[in-house]
């Protein structure tokens, strides 16, 4: 009875065959895919990537192992929920061997959420606790200085993050000094080192202008130290403006929430730290041009004003103003003299008229026409003969002189009496 011998085993008495890598991989591929045509797997999503192609790449893991997985665009487009790192899911799929890399992966045909992973749940609880304390308050965020002179970077000195950061710094701006405080950025004890480095940076003299905490991308486990409470509190309490540049755009740590500014990548952190030297040069050239034009314009306006002043009569004939003032003063003098003369004439005329009226009313004028005034010795003017008696002494006032006489006879027309005679 013939027994089939596997291609990687030799028949009795024969030399074992030598397989090529492609042959061996092909044997593994056929065996594995036939043995697991469809399996259900539960695990936590990690290293989730969703490129523009629409495919989804991720890692399923638990406490003891992990496996790469892929979800093609046709399956991913039908998902009724969003995938995220730390999410517990149940997947149905088949195993596939990728020969060019010699690796295997799970091709997911169906996926259902199972709950939140332990790390993700711990992250959410810590975030709620620190948010309640106000560590993520937007009102506490400080602006970055426009032209920093000293920049401190807390990161691994051998990682890609510091290389990217320094490369962008060299390209954009050379007016700042960069001090790197080396720390571990992954694994046990990394959080304590990062927190200590941040506190150390705040004590440097002179004090740095900006602090950057950064590292490259990774899984939620790789970035976990930047979400631990000591690091978050150190960033929130730091007196220096802090930029957090941890992971890539899709990675969000609690350090990002506590920092004054979040950068999506280490390269973007460098762009946020310093201005572009070419842009500053262009701006300065623009300011210089505007300043020169403004000064030229002001000088031109000043020259025009000076020319206008020089053409004025006061500068061309400086004594003309004095002559004009003298002529004006002479005119006022003539007008004042004429006004005084007119006023004097009017006053004189008024005096003559008043004098004439007084003279017409004066008793002397009446006397001048042939009349006289007679009065008693008591200077009472006589208006009736009854006011005197025979023998009374009277005074008669004539236009020229006075007469003193004595009454010899009184004739009164009102009484019709006989003349009184002296006895």
TrEMBL record:
InterPro entries reported in the protein's UniProt record: Exonuc_VII_L, Exonuc_VII_lsu_C, OB-fold_nuc-bd_dom
Location(s) in or outside the cell: Cytoplasm
Primary location class: cytoplasm
Entry GO terms, CC: cytoplasm; exodeoxyribonuclease VII complex
Domain OB-fold nucleic acid binding stretches: 19-112
Catalyses which reaction(s): Exonucleolytic cleavage in either 5'- to 3'- or 3'- to 5'-direction to yield nucleoside 5'-phosphates
The keyword Nuclease belongs to this UniProt entry's keyword annotation: yes
CDD domains: ExoVII_LU_OBF
Keywords: Cytoplasm, Exonuclease, Hydrolase, Nuclease
Segments forming domain Exonuclease VII large subunit C-terminal: 135-344
The protein's role, per its UniProt record: Bidirectionally degrades single-stranded DNA into large acid-insoluble oligonucleotides, which are then degraded further into small acid-soluble oligonucleotides.
NCBIfam families: xseA
Assigned protein family: Belongs to the XseA family.
Quaternary structure note: Heterooligomer composed of large and small subunits.
Annotated protein name in UniProt: Exodeoxyribonuclease 7 large subunit
Gene giving rise to this polypeptide: xseA
């Amino acid at each position: 009875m013939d027994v089939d011998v596997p291609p990687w085993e030799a028949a009795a008495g024969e030399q074992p065959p030598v397989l090529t890598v492609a042959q061996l991989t092909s044997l593994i591929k056929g065996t594995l895919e036939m043995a697991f045509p469809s399996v259900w797997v539960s695990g936590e999503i990690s290293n989730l990537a969703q490129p523009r192609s629409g495919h989804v790449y991720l890692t399923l893991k638990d406490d003891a192992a992990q496996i790469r997985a892929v979800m093609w665009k046709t399956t991913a487009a039908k998902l009724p929920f969003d995938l995220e790192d730390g999410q517990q899911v149940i997947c149905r799929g088949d195993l596939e061997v990728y020969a060019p890399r010699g690796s295997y992966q799970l091709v997911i045909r169906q996926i259902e959420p199972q709950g939140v992973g332990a790390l993700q749940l711990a992250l959410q609880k810590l975030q709620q606790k620190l948010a309640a304390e106000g560590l993520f308050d937007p009102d506490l965020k400080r602006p970055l200085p426009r032209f920093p002179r000293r920049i401190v970077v807390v990161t691994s000195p051998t990682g890609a993050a510091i290389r990217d950061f320094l490369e962008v710094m060299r390209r954009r701006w050379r007016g700042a000094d960069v001090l790197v405080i080396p720390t571990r950025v992954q694994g046990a004890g990394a959080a304590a080192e990062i927190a200590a480095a941040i506190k150390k940076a705040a004590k440097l003299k002179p004090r740095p202008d900006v602090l950057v905490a950064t590292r490259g991308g990774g899984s939620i486990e790789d970035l976990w130290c930047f979400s631990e409470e000591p690091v978050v509190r150190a960033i929130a309490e730091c007196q220096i403006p802090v930029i957090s540049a941890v992971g890539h755009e899709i990675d969000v740590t609690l350090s990002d929430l506590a920092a004054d500014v979040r950068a999506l990548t280490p390269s973007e952190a460098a762009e946020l730290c310093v201005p572009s030297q070419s842009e500053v040069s262009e701006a300065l050239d623009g300011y210089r041009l505007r300043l020169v034009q403004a000064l030229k314009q002001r000088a031109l306006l000043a020259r025009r004003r000076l020319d206008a002043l020089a053409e004025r009569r006061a500068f061309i004939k400086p004594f003309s103003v004095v002559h004009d003032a003298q002529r004006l003063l002479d005119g006022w003098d003539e007008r004042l003299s004429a006004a005084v003369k007119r006023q004097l004439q009017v006053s004189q005329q008024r005096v003559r008229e008043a004098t004439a009226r007084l003279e017409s009313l004066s008793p002397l004028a009446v006397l001048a026409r042939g009349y006289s005034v007679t009065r008693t010795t008591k200077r009472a003017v006589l208006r009736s003969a009854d006011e005197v008696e025979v023998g009374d002494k009277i005074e008669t006032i004539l236009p020229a002189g006075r007469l003193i006489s004595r009454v010899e006879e009184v004739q009164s027309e009102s009484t019709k009496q006989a003349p009184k005679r002296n006895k």
